[in-house]
Amino acid sequence: MKKGSSLLIVITIISVFLILAVFLTKIVYNNYSAVRNSVIREQAFYLAEAGIEKGKAELSHNPGWYTDLPYYLSDNDKWLIGYAVGQQENLGEGAYKIVREKGKNRLYSIGYKGEGIVVLKLTFTNPPFKNLEWSEL
Q1: What is the distance between the alpha carbons of residues 49 and 36, in angstroms, rounded to a whole number?
Q2: Of the N and C termini of the chain, which has fewer Cβ atoms inside 10 Å?
Q3: Mean pLDDT, consecutive 10-residue segments, the chain of 137 residues?
């Protein structure tokens, strides 16, 4: 063996291990981010579900209850999230906003948790308020 060839072999082995370490770190980080985002979305979903239950309670006590005037587009999630006037409440580390347009048979609930936002819609009949359709936008 020539002088310095063992140093070249050691440097090559260390370089391969460093490249493997970078790839493994990237895989672990991607998995962590995916799980974190999934947990945040689930928490936002449950907050929105709590808002639906609160809205159903409001409607059972006062069938004429509403939070906003009618909007010409139905199921517009951008309007619901950013501009609709609703009844907003904090719950734990998140919040929810309930939106009922005057004279409409739809109730929306938006759950907020960090970057996670979930919009749920409940369509109901006139009293006694039987649920017809429950969906996520």
Answers
A1: 20
A2: N
A3: 81 95 96 95 96 91 91 89 93 94 92 95 79 76
